[in-house]
Amino acid sequence: MARKSIEERLAQLDAQRAALKARLSKQERANDTRRKVLLGALVLHRLENGKDEISRALPDWLRRELPGFLTRDGDKELFADLLASAPARETTDAGGAAS
Hints:
Strand content: under 5%
Mean pLDDT: 87
Order of helices and strands: HHHH
Radius of gyration: 26 Å
Distance between the termini: 85 Å
């Protein structure tokens, strides 16, 4: 009889451990999301209000990096305004044809 009690306690401890691991995982995901949101807010703030050298270089850097980073069409649409304002780099003749 005592053996069953220990097995039950072990099962209960295993269930508590699993619940705690799930809570920890959820908290880690929430922290990761919050970091991303805050970092994105900083980047957007610098794009809109920044006057220093880094802020002035940020749009060009994002135009170079975002197309390779974004994989979903919906994500690309979110940044269409930023990506569309890229200066024409490959046009060399008056007709606007790429070289």
